[in-house]
TrEMBL record, chain B:
The keyword Translocase does not apply. It comes from Roseibium aggregatum. This is ABC transporter permease. GO terms for cellular component: plasma membrane. It is a multi-pass membrane protein.
Length: 307, 363
């Protein structure tokens, strides 16, 4: 029995990690006042580029690095249009997703059915020998630890440092931030790049750890769920962890319910994470007090500096 | 070099017409580069992709078959986007509409009267509208973001379709293939021409004309545009944002559901695990390329339908992956959005050192 619980917990962590990383990146982007709906597109690009690079070089680390660069390149394109050319953020984010799905399908054609590389698990000495907890918590791959570090760093930087203050000022009132002499567009562009890097990293986790292979469209809406998680967290980094692990648990439970049969058609179980997203969004959004306090006031609003 | 945007005093009418043309031009250049990068002759690639399909009657009919659902969906999406309602779940509304429209011919195949087809179309439109009203109600009632909820419902609808064609709606005489029974004569949309083209195509043209008149000449059209551009002004005029949200979603969903039913009844003649190559998403590109204008959407629908056929053509004749079609579609949307900037802004290039006034410029 304990073994089963252990196995389930392990899979929950692998299912939650990509959501956590992508969501924390997008949280920073939205805190700066930009809504990048292209998370799905950047993630799938990270997945295919990460897989391809790891496959060609034989190194998982290089794969992850290439995925981050790919995500950042995609987000730079988005940033140039949205910040430089003041295009509609919703439409441009959609364009990024459509483009990412197309390009990844084209790059990935050569890698369908190719056996993948799995990121090595780090074995933390002594701690990993603790019965039950040890193998679950202290025998993960590096990215799992990195995901928690990211949340901690983002949370600290946002609320305890000057950089975070500037970022939030830009997101809450870009006119005032501009008047104070901060470059709104530069801050936003950097935030967008950070979000892109995170989405790329999350994508590489999909193709190098979650299911080490390339399947077209393998992110299956996780980028969109990450976007919903940012709303769920009401833009507070620590709450993203709760959201990501909740969704990781829902995904894993549907897998296990399928394995047990349980007489429920698999399609109904597969639709659970999407339905859960809707329910969670409704529950959070209905609470106006909670959302109004933390929603960046300039979210999605364009800014053209007057000279 | 630094790019600076200078706001125009008013919309540039010239650019409003030119920007989609420039965008298509830039896409052609990008497509040529893509062909060259995949090791083929770029000019031959462009010819096979964009020109050759237009020279043959069969493929022109196929282009119309593919343009029809996208034009219908994009017309509804235009109303949503004009009124600032971000419905991106048309793919799900298309699928759910098709399911509702297929209910009669699959569950009651013996019901074969002259009423069958009209009933199917009504059920399909109602089904699509119902699926679209879910995110609309969640938005107006609970303030939930319609972008995310409408998209999530796409996954739910396609899983539902998958379940039905593999489970309860599978053809009993179909050797266990995941497909429904073929529709009877009475449930099939009348065909035109010698290909798969049905009367869905003229229906789409009628919808375009009606919507163009409604948007340009009626109070409802005015309401849609005002609420999109200035909700506050609209509120003073007595328009209700919530009621308009419900209207826009219901219209978009209804048209998508109608398109789904006509696709299944006219072109496919049965339900399959996938009934759409992403029409609901490509229709978003159609709507923007058509500048949210019904007549523009009609033209844009042909361009995007051509990209599907062109993708198949280059794969068949040149061995280039047909994925190139979706890359070109994505690039096209990028160029369309970028070029739309020219309507509101003039672009001025500055050298890094001095501006027009001779001041040292800060980046």
């Amino acid at each position: 029995m304990l073994d089963i619980v252990q196995a389930v917990l392990l899979t929950v962590i692998t299912a939650a990690t990509p959501l956590l990383i992508a969501a924390i990146g997008e949280l920073v982007v939205e805190r700066s006042g930009v809504l990048n709906l292209g998370v799905e597109g950047m993630m799938i690009m990270g997945a295919v580029v990460g897989f391809a690079a790891a496959n060609q070089s034989g190194s998982g680390a290089l794969g992850v690095l290439a995925a981050i660069v790919a995500g950042m390149a995609m987000s730079a394109l988005f940033g140039f249009l949205v910040l430089g050319l003041v295009t509609n953020q919703v439409a441009t984010g959609l364009a990024l997703t459509i483009l990412g799905l197309g390009v990844s399908g084209m790059i990935g054609e050569a890698f369908i059915g190719v056996p993948g590389l799995r990121l090595p698990k780090l074995d933390i000495p002594v701690l990993s020998d603790i019965p039950f907890i040890g193998p679950v918590v202290f025998q993960q791959d590096a990215i799992v630890y990195l995901s928690f570090a990211l949340v901690g760093i983002v949370s600290y930087c946002l609320f305890r440092t000057r950089i975070g203050l500037i970022l939030r000022a830009v997101g809450d009132n870009h006119t005032s931030a501009h008047a104070l002499g901060y470059s709104v567009l530069k801050v936003r562009f950097l935030a967008v790049l950070f979000g892109g890097g995170c989405a790329g990293l999350a994508g590489s986790y999909m193709s190098l750890a979650y299911t080490p292979q390339w399947v077209e469209n393998m992110t299956a809406g996780r980028g969109w769920i990450a976007l919903a998680l940012v709303v769920f967290s009401s833009w507070l980094p620590m709450r993203v962890i709760a959201g990501a692990y909740l969704f990781g648990a829902v995904t894993v439970l549907t897998f296990h319910a399928q394995a047990l049969g349980a007489g429920i058609p698999s399609q109904f179980l597969s639709s659970l994470p999407y339905l859960a997203t809707i329910v969670v969004l409704v529950l959070i959004s209905a609470n106006r007090r909670l959302t109004l306090v933390n929603t960046p006031a300039c979210l999605g609003k364009p800014f053209v500096p007057d000279r | 070099m630094r790019i600076e945007l200078v706001k125009r005093k008013e919309h540039s009418r010239k650019m409003a017409l030119l920007s989609p043309v420039i965008a298509v031009g830039l896409t052609l250049v990008a497509a040529a580069i893509l062909f060259a990068a995949s090791g083929t002759d770029p000019f031959l690639g462009l010819y096979k992709f964009f020109i050759e399909p237009l020279t043959d009657s069969w493929s022109v009919q196929e282009i119309i078959v593919k343009a029809t659902p996208m034009v219908l969906i994009a017309c509804g999406l235009a109303v949503c986007y004009l009124s600032n309602n971000w419905n991106i779940g048309a793919e799900g509304q298309f699928i759910f509409g098709a399911l509702c429209g297929s209910f009669l011919p699959i569950v009651y195949p013996e019901f074969e009267t002259s009423l069958t087809l009209p009933l199917m179309l009504v059920l399909g439109a109602l089904g699509g509208a119902f699926w679209a009203l879910i995110p609309a109600v969640l938005k107006t009632r609970f303030n939930a973001n319609e972008i995310l909820t409408s998209l999530m419902l796409v996954y739910v609808a396609s899983l539902l379709l998958d379940y039905l064609v593999r489970g309860p709606w599978r053809d009993p005489g179909g050797y266990n293939f995941p497909e429904s029974r073929l529709f009877s004569e009475a449930a099939t949309l009348p065909l035109i021409g010698d290909g798969r083209m049905s009367i869905a195509a003229p229906v789409a043209v009628v919808v375009v004309i009606v919507l163009a008149i409604v948007l340009a000449r009626t109070l409802k059209g005015f309401e849609i545009r005002v609420m999109g551009e200035s909700p506050r002004a609209g509120a003073f005029a007595g328009f209700s944002a919530k009621r308009l949200t419900l209207f826009a979603f219901a219209l978009a969903g209804g048209l998508a559901g109608l398109a789904g039913t006509m696709e299944v009844s006219g072109s496919l003649n049965q339900l399959l695990p996938t009934i759409s190559p992403g029409y609901g998403f490509t229709a978003i590109i159609v709507a923007f390329l058509g500048r949210l204008n019904p007549v523009g959407i009609l033209v844009a629908g042909f361009v995007l339908a051509l990209s599907y056929i062109g993708g198949e053509a280059v794969q068949a004749s040149m061995g280039v992956s047909d994925k190139i079609a979706s890359v070109i579609q994505g690039l096209l949307l990028f160029f369309v959005l970028a070029c739309d900037t020219l309507i509101l802004y003039r672009i001025r290039l500055h050298s890094r050192r001095t501006t027009a006034t001779g001041e040292v410029s800060r980046a």
